[in-house]
Design brief:
This is Late embryogenesis abundant protein LEA-2 subgroup domain-containing protein. InterPro entries: NDR1-like. By secondary structure, this protein is of the alpha+beta class. Helices cover 19% and strands 49% of the residues. The chain has 1 helix and 10 strands; from the N terminus they run αββββββββββ. The chain has one helix at residues 2-40; strands at 47-62, 67-80, 87-98, 101-109, 115-117, 121-135, 149-160, 165-176, 190-191, 193-199. A hairpin with a 4-residue loop joins strand 1 and strand 2 (67-80). The model has no long low-confidence stretch (mean pLDDT 79).
């Protein structure tokens, strides 16, 4: 009689423990999901635009190795469109491509530094310069279109420390060639669009 009652008590206690563990797990899952949802509600990614751009050199007169000499100047605008969410950007680079081939880059924000972007605030990077020389794979001369403009793609890669994400945007530009002139005349402001977005935990090695 007593042995049966003792066994029933143990079974009941074991069942209660299982129910408590299940309820606690459910509470933690719901709590984590709720926290993530509330923390990111209304979140909009940083907005990049190229407000000015011009080339004062872009040629490959060296026919043997097809070396490109380039000098590209960019005015870049970074905007935080959120009402309550801050950004803290670091490790930000601007990479330029011509005919799908990378030819140069410039670092806007060093990986050891950062820029804090408050809600509804804008930062302007004036006269970001991409210049140098680079051998190209294609054999044709680099030629502008009939209006002396080049089609150049710019990719901006950045790290947001607060939101713990890495992202890239692309800006498809039509850039005027102005020899010995420091002017963005003839360039239309271009808004960049997202091509890649990864959270930091997505990049962690998996066992």
């Amino acid at each position: 009689m007593f042995a049966t009652e003792s066994s029933d008590v143990k079974n009941t206690s074991h069942l209660c423990k299982k129910i408590c563990i299940a309820l606690l797990s459910l509470f933690l899952i719901v709590g984590a999901y709720t926290w993530f949802f509330i923390a990111n509600i209304g979140y909009t990614q940083p907005e990049f635009s190229i407000t000015g751009a011009y080339l004062n050199r872009f040629d490959n007169y060296t026919e043997i190795n097809h070396t490109l000499s380039y000098s590209l100047v960019l005015n870049i605008t970074l905007t935080n469109p959120n009402k309550k969410v801050d950004f803290e950007l670091s490790d930000t680079q601007v990479i330029a491509y011509y005919q799908n081939e990378r030819f140069g880059l410039v670092t806007l924000i060093d990986r050891w530094k950062s820029i804090h972007q408050y809600p509804k605030n804008t930062t302007i990077f004036q006269n970001a310069l991409i210049q140098g020389r680079k051998p190209l794979l294609y054999e044709e001369h680099v030629l502008p279109n009939v209006t002396h403009h080049y089609r150049i793609d710019v990719v901006i890669a950045f790290h947001d420390k607060i939101q713990q994400l890495f992202a890239e945007v692309t800006c498809n530009l039509t850039v005027p060639l102005n020899f010995n002139v420091t002017s963005c005349d003839g360039f239309n402001t271009t808004k960049c669009s997202y091509i890649q977005f990864k959270l930091e935990h997505d990049l962690a090695p998996k066992n």
